[in-house]
Amino acid sequence: MDIRYMGFEQQKNARAFRFDVVVKGQPNRRCVVTADLSLFLTNRVALQEGPTLCANKLTIDLENNLDGEHELTEMDLRRHTEARLQAEAARAEKRGGRRPPAATPGAQQQRSHWRNFGL
Fold first, then answer.
1. Considering the entire predicted model, what is its pTM?
2. Is the sign of the CA dihedral 25, 16, 88, 101 positive or negative?
3. Total domains in the fold of the chain
4. Residue 106 placed within a domain
5. 66 vs 55: CA distance, rounded Å
6. Which site from 2, 35, 66, 116 is most exposed, i.e. has the minimal number of CB atoms within 10 Å?
7. What's the pLDDT at 68?
8. Which of the pair, 2 or 114, is modelled with greater confidence?
9. How far apart are CA 35 and CA 27, in angstroms?
10. Within 10 Å of residue 39's Cβ, how many Cβ atoms?
11. How far apart are the first and last CA of the chain?
12. What is the residue range of 31's domain?
């Protein structure tokens, strides 16, 4: 099964992400996954992640033989956020959990500008 993202339509506070589901030997099928945009803000997930998250949701739904309407829920976004935090923690642990050394007052002033950019 191959899922192809075909774009989205804005529907007030939601987006309807369109996908074609391609299965060899069968006609293509159009599926739509809707997502409430406020959930992205609440869970601090970038809108750019919407198509991938919806494709993953659709894949799971289709593997579980769930037809009909598909919706990206708050629980889906929470799971994504939790998985992202766990991956970040695992990467930090792999690096040895190193923290930057305590800064001297002069060093703090030099680094403060870069903190604004997340560096």
1. 0.73
2. positive
3. 1
4. no
5. 14
6. 116
7. 85
8. 2
9. 26
10. 18
11. 41
12. 2-96
Structure tokens at 31: 């599926």
What one-letter code names the amino acid at 107? A
Tokens of 103: 């800064």
Q: Is residue 117 part of a domain?
A: no
CB 71 within 8 A of CB 31: no
Give CA–CA dist 54/72, Å, rounded.
6
Q: 88 in a domain, yes or no?
A: yes
Beginning with the edge strand found earlier in the chain, give each strand of the sheet holding 29-36 in spatial order.
2-11, 14-22, 29-36, 70-72
30-64 confidence digits (pLDDT tens):
999 999 999 999 999 999 999 999 999 999 999 99
Residue type, 47: L
User: Is the distance from CB of 7 to CB of 42 less than 8 angstroms?
Assistant: no
Angstrom distance (rounded) from CA 70 to CA 119? 39
- Please indicate, yes or no, if residue 8 is contained in any of the structural domains: yes
Q: Report the distance separating Cα 1 and Cα 8, nearest Å.
A: 21
Longest CA–CA span in the chain (Å) reads 68
